[in-house]
From TrEMBL:
Species of origin: Cryobacterium melibiosiphilum
Residue span, WYL domain: 152-217
Segments forming domain WCX: 266-319
Entry protein name: WYL domain-containing protein
Family matches, as InterPro entries: CBASS_pafABC_assoc_protein, WCX_dom, WYL_dom
Region annotation (Disordered) ranges: 322-365
Amino acid sequence: MVAAIAVEERLFSLVLALIATETGLSRDQVLSTVQGYRQRYVRDKDNTGLERQFERDKDDLRELGIPLEALDPYDHVQARYRIPKGLYDLPSDVRFSPNELMLLKLAATVWREGSLSAESRRALTKLRSLGAGASDPVLGYAPHLRALDSSFEPLNRALDRGEVVAFRYLKPGDAAPRRRVVAPRAIVQFDGRWHLFASDQEVGATRTFLLSRIVGAVVAVPRSTFEPDPTLTARLALDELEALWQSNVAEIDVEPGSDAAVRLGKRGIAPADAASPRVSLHFTDLNILADELAGFGPEVRVRSPESLRAAVLQRLAGVAALHRDPPQPGDPEQHGIPEQHGIPDQHGIPEQHGDPHVRPDREQR
């Protein structure tokens, strides 16, 4: 099995190879000799996927501002590529001190696993090609934004390679996960959680998926790729999540001086009366907020929306059921949930008809 080569390593190797040649390299020479391509190149066989990767990499280099030159560009087979050294030099008035280069590398490194990973990889590639070494000991102490969801890395690879993927996704309220087939468009972090913005191949529309609800492995669909769409960007995904967050507001009463008052008060909308126990919270996912609020127990009371209140009551009732003593033979009441003292307004669990504020086309909701 061929070991995977990091994207930034492949691009860096391509830059070095194209700078080193005076007469240029043909496409086959690049694919058969440059690190990151040669490991997957098969002579006299179909290398269509690798050729598409090279075309995308050329676009990436040009986005970096690297002057990639094509000799005889109208013949893709015979065309030769090079980077003229004189055109790639920094302007004479631009200089980076060692400390500045170190800070730039740290800034790129900290985002390697974040929503700006593609941009940070490009920045890191350019810094290396300008002479910023990769062996700085300080990089061992660089902070990282870790993505704990196991689906993050395979989705990120599929995004880089233009691969359609399949996974099983468990929506709240469903008894079993459902298989989804999507073309990844962006991975973004919003409200402390990672989301996949993708084109759903079954419904023919974009959907947003919460990574923590992906069940099992993310697998590439054989012989199925997609082309980049400049209209489907991370910015679009974040704008949609922001709009959803703004439209959903929960009204919650908190116990003054409690842990809930401190934690939720920092995130909530400031009330007109500073002494008021009422907190207004924006949210994107009703079920995640319900999990959090149930953890505060009697320190909180949900006023609205009703669907959130019902979800919190359901969780509290479930906890009470798990901790009650098992019924003994002869007990007059062996069914139902006993009265729950200390939990305000527990008058049964109302039927959940759904939250009219939550948009139905967002898969994570």
